[in-house]
């Protein structure tokens, strides 16, 4: 192995191993990797069960990403590169692409990749499993031609460092999740961090204490997933998790609320912000669970002051926060459902929230 190869491989090693820790580190590593493999672009691609999770390629026009999604480039029947994928760290190149092309059912990807200058190259799988495939590729344009033996050797060497960097990114995400629930431990809050599959990635000690038979049984962990013991409540919880994973910013609802004669748990779901380089490892949803404990009626005074409500409106907001149904509130106050609805609209406007669930969450945060 010549000294130039060793030096360039060392540069790639340093770049990839620094990538998780430096701002723009992954872009810098991929740019260097492309140069050292004589490629127009280096690509780090994450594929899920039915979609592209990420597609990182420095210095490529944004139209490339849009077009890749439009042709459903993650599908092996469309993308002959995906169809040609081998085992982890097995190097796949043009000889494999030629075979995969013969069985491709469409020219969409061929047209796409020729337009963007990546018809030749080589690739490998870095991570595979649990509905996630992370692949690394070096793309050569028609002008750059097919890869040479040295290009593929450099690619294979760099791929081992890329794998180490991806694993480090994964470990940092897991460590970050542990630190997050540790912060909730410090204040005694029951918190669950949910990953992109809907499974519990981490939970606080207070969260452990409210699941299963050790508590009242309202919440359960089944095969690593958060659920409710009652079927109707579980359906609501699973639907809420799906909405949160799909981008809904915040939701709030009761499990076993006082209106049902149970102890009641207030569940708040928050969509966590995505980081550019999370690779699908970072938690996606935070679920905070608080036990219901009726807020005393005397607490309406600070609620009126905080939100500018009338005495009647503060009472209604407090009852909603305690999990009472609208019909029960109307009956207790001797008013019609229509009048109560009008009052709730006024409360929402004064509280600067759009939905009753947001109001309930706000009141609980202010007074519990």
Calculate the terminal CA-CA distance, rounded to whole Å: 68 Å
Strand content range: 15-25%
Low-confidence stretches: none
Put simply, the count of helices is 14
**How many beta-strand runs?**
11
What class would the helix/strand composition place it in? Answer: alpha+beta
Radius of gyration: 27 Å
From the structure above, extract its key features.
368 residues; alpha+beta; five-stranded antiparallel sheet; 14 helices; 18% strand; elongated
Structure notes:
This protein is an alpha+beta fold and 368 residues long. Helix content is 46%, strand content 18%. It has 14 helices and eleven strands. The protein has helices at residues 3-18, 25-36, 62-70, 80-83, 94-102, 108-115, 149-186, 205-209, 231-245, 300-307, 311-321, 326-333, 337-351, 356-367; strands spanning 41-47, 52-56, 120-129, 132-140, 190-194, 200-203, 219-222, 225-228, 250-255, 265-271, 285-291. The strands form three sheets. Strands 6-5-11-10-9 form a five-stranded antiparallel β-sheet. It has a four-stranded antiparallel β-sheet with strand order 2-1-4-3. Strands 7-8 form a two-stranded antiparallel sheet. Strand 7 (219-222) and strand 8 (225-228) form a beta hairpin. Helix 10 crosses helix 11 (311-321) and helix 11 (311-321) packs across helix 14 (356-367). The longest helix has 38 residues, at 149-186.
């Amino acid at each position: 192995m010549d000294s130039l190869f060793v030096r360039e491989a060392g540069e790639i090693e340093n770049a990839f191993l620094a990538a998780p820790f430096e701002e723009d580190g992954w872009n810098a590593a991929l740019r260097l990797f492309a140069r050292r493999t004589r490629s127009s672009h280096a690509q780090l691609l994450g594929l899920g069960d039915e979609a592209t999770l990420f597609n990182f390629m420095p210095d490529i026009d944004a139209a490339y990403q849009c077009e890749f999604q439009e042709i459903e480039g993650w599908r092996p029947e469309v993308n002959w590169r995906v169809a040609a994928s081998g085992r982890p760290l097995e190097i796949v190149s043009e000889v494999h692409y030629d075979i995969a092309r013969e069985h491709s059912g469409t020219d969409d990807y061929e047209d796409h990749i020729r337009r963007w200058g990546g018809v030749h190259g080589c690739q490998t799988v870095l991570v595979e499993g649990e509905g996630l495939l992370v692949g690394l590729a070096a793309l050569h344009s028609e002008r750059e031609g097919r890869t040479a033996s040295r290009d593929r050797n450099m690619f294979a060497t760099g791929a081992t460092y890329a794998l180490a960097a991806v694993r480090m990114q994964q470990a940092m995400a897991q460590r970050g999740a542990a630190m997050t629930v540790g912060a909730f431990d410090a204040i005694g809050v029951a918190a669950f961090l949910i990953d992109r599959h809907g499974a519990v990635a981490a939970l606080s000690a207070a969260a452990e204490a409210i699941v299963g038979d050790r508590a009242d049984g309202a919440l359960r962990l089944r095969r690593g997933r958060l659920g409710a013991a009652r079927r109707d409540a579980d359906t609501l919880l699973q639907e809420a998790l799906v909405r949160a994973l799909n981008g809904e910013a915040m939701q709030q609802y009761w499990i076993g609320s006082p209106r049902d004669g149970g102890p009641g748990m207030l569940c708040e779901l928050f969509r966590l912000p995505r980081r550019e380089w999370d690779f699908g490892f970072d938690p996606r949803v935070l679920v905070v669970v608080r036990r219901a404990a009726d807020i005393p009626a005397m607490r309406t005074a600070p609620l009126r002051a905080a939100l500018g409500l009338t005495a009647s409106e503060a009472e209604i907001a407090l009852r909603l926060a305690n999990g009472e149904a609208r019909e029960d509130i109307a009956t207790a106050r001797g008013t019609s459902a229509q009048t109560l609805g009008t009052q709730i609209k006024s409360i929402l406007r004064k509280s600067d929230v759009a939905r009753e669930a947001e109001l309930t969450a706000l009141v609980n945060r202010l007074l519990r």
